[in-house]
Request: fold
Amino acid sequence: MKHVRNKRIYKTLMINYLKAFALSLILGIISITILFTFSGYASSSEDPSYAEKFMKDDYNEIDDEYIIEHYGTMMVVNDDLEILKSAGEDPVQFMKSIIGQDVIEDEEIIENSKINKQYWNMFLYNLNRRIKGYDCSIKYNEDEHFYLITKMPVSVTFIFSIDINTSKEILPEALTIVVFVVLMYSIVLFIGMYLYSKITAGTFVKPLRELFDGVKKLEDGNYKEHIKISGNNEFVNLSESFNNLSDKLEYEKKMRKETEDNRKRLILDISHDLKNPLTGVVGSLEMCMKVYNHDDFNGKDNGEIRLNNNYNNLDQKLQSHDKLNHYLNMAYNNSLRANSLIESLFEYSKLENPDYEMNLKKIDFCEFIRLCILEELDEIEEAGIIGEYDIPDEPIYAYIDEKEFKRAIHNLISNSVKYNKKGTVIKISLSKDKDNIKLIIEDNGIGIDKSLKDSIFTRFKRGTQMNITEMSQDKSIENKKENIHKNEGTGLGLAIVKKIVNMHSGEIYLETDINKGCIFTIILKTND
Ligand code: ADP
Reply:
């Protein structure tokens, strides 16, 4: 699979390079044609040569000063090859620079101001050739019969040319060289192109392979590994996005696992918590049946108590009645507990459901809290709890789901009543600052171990046994102890309170310690 991918990219690149090669060849040919076309433009034959420009019939009038000023050289020679006038470079040096033979003796070139015929011819022949950096020209004055030869430095000349001697002997050789050069050029270009395409393909294939391996790992559910691609190109950006994606998937996997674990734990907690009261119900009913079957309850009960084999006396029969009553009570209390657990569970699951929405309405929160307290008043007074309330008279507005929030307030107040002894003070106060509404429900009762102050809001979390034990030692609360036993908490009350408060975009905090009471503070946003 990898191999195929590699090959494909390589082939694509190769085709692209071939196209680029063809294009560069065409561009090369066009460029060379342009170069040839414009070659020699600066020294175009349409421009008159310097010799032509300076020519005068009287050679003494030739502007030799201009030539010297511009670092040029001039020489006037008659038909007898006598030098009539010269300026700039020494005539011998001038001729030698054109002929290009340093070895020649100066005297051989010019003898008694007369130029040697042989060297003159060589001079004329070479004069037509270009001399690097100079523009040489010759003009013959036909009326006065003299030559003017000039050598002027060029300012700008654009030269591109191939000189081919078309003599038949060297043409095949020249052609071979041209073909060889073109062939070598093509081979070198092709090898370069091949190597370049291989290297470039490598730079694509390596990060692609990394990405491909990464995707494979994602497919296998391994989101932890990150792709590492170095450099500064799109692959790096792609790998970063890829790593972000795997982080997200890893996070979601973790969340899924947490939800799944939560669900399993919830089922375990529910079954555990339901098991006790239901076992109690079954056990109590079994005991009832035993008492009923063992004792004779089938006799006619028309005021006369019938004694049979099983009863020795009236006391025994009364005891059996008490037993029966006791076990029925136990069964009833256990079913009450199971029922309250299921109700709380239903409430908690309803709030947990992401589709559940609060029915928020703008209300006067002060009035609402007053009504809640009113509804709890009987319970508070019956338990001998002292209530202190500080609710402002002027309205404080908030968006509240009245039904749900009432449940939260009820849970908090009934906890204070349920877990604390007679004479405990419960204070409920409400205040408002610029941004927040603060509702405090506090008591000075037995409190909760402070290590539990945050975790107590999680479901099925209950206070330490110490709370209960401590209460059982207090004889004045004998009845309440009984009550706790009957309606043993579900451990869901505070979890429900927190859910409800959070769903009102609020927060709840607890300050507590053993024997220091509980201070529950609810913070809500103001909505004036
Ligand atoms: P439940 O009351 O059903 O057990 P909660 O979530 O309402 O569940 O309370 C959790 C625990 O916190 C209780 O079991 C109790 O030990 C403790 N608790 C709550 N409120 C108070 C309070 N006002 N005073 C003392 N203990 C409290």
